[in-house]
Amino acid sequence: SGSIRGRENEHTMDIRPDNNPSFVVDAREEFPMPDDTYDIVLSDPPYDLETSEGVKVDYSTKLWKTEFIRPYAWVEEAIRVLKPGGHLLVLHNLVYIQPKNATRVCVVSITCGPNTRIRCLSIFRKDTAVDKLLKKADERNTKEVQIGEIVKTED
Predict the structure, then answer these.
(1) How many Å apart are CA 121 and CA 70, to the nearest integer?
(2) Of 28-37, 69-78, 122-131, 141-150, where does mean pLDDT reach its minimum?
């Protein structure tokens, strides 16, 4: 979030205007950019978490004065603004599940040293038309793809 000097050609989003982001917006709402805009979306969302056992970790209320943020509330929009073949990188304490219309590339564990919590960098690639076609073939339990199907995948 916020602006980074010397990187003015990159866009940032933050709910707090004092961080000087390119877009002041709540990421849980629709992103203010068109479909297929970016090659890379990098996110370090709040580490809010609530389990079925009643454990709740809530940084949003204290730090950002917002309501609890569900970890996946913004992912669909992030995928929407990625170009086909673009990458979503999520730094969080959760290993994120694979989003719809994307494929997991890898997960990298990150630590700053002893006695610190490990964070995960989940990396996903937005599906291209060919990826979608191959996933459909997998669902049909076949590797055969008709040439007509390839031509029709431009949507």
Answers:
(1) 18
(2) 141-150
Each residue's pLDDT tens digit, 11-61 = 888 887 887 888 998 888 889 999 999 999 998 876 656 666 766 665 555
DSSP code of residue 72: T
The secondary structure of 89-155 as a DSSP string is: EEEESS-PPPPTTEEEEEEEEE--STTS--EEEEEEEE--HHHHHHHHHHHTT-----HHHHHT---
Cα–Cα distance measured from residue 81 to residue 151, given in angstroms and rounded to the nearest whole number: 24
Q: Please answer whether residues 18 and 55 qualify as being in contact, where contact means their C-beta atoms are separated by less than 8 angstroms.
A: no
CB-count burial class (<10 Å; 0-12, 13-18, 19+) for 27: buried
